[in-house]
Amino acid sequence: MFPQEEPILIIPCGKKKREGKHRAKELYTGPYFKACLNFAEKFFPKSYFIFSAKYGLLHPDEMVESYDVTFKRKNSSTVKVERLREQLQKFNLIDKSLVVLGGKDYIERLIRALKAPNRLVAPLKGFGLGRQISIMTRSVRLNTIIFPIFWLEK
Q1: Quick one: pLDDT at residue 152?
Q2: Domains in the chain, start-ordered, CATH in brackets?
Q3: How does pLDDT run across 49-64, given as a tens digit for each residue?
Q4: How many Cα atoms sit within 13 Å of 106 on the Cβ side?
Q5: pTM above the 0.85 mark?
């Protein structure tokens, strides 16, 4: 059963970035991020955030400096779960239904930060990057989400 409120989409940041300070949605330049962004702007235009390994949750229009931080490198500069929880509360997302695109590092951190992790779904989990890009690109081209999104009631 679907919840009454519109779900929020969380998309991952990307390794490839422009130099300098930019709006978050313009900072990342890689093909995976671009596929996620096109999907977000098509189906969740007013209800998506970018999950940065350094900054945590970013509004797409938030200005941020380029950086070199990734969850793949064990680095003290990555966003902490406590900070992520604060951001979820700040953006009033802590009890919302979330659709999360991205790898396990993003998904696991969000699950640890949420009050109700059963409100999170990762519909492309387990697919390789190429397949995920294909699914998102095809969804945008066909103007319909072509993967199932199931929700649990609270």
Answers
A1: 36
A2: 8-142 (3.40.50)
A3: 999 999 999 999 999 9
A4: 27
A5: yes
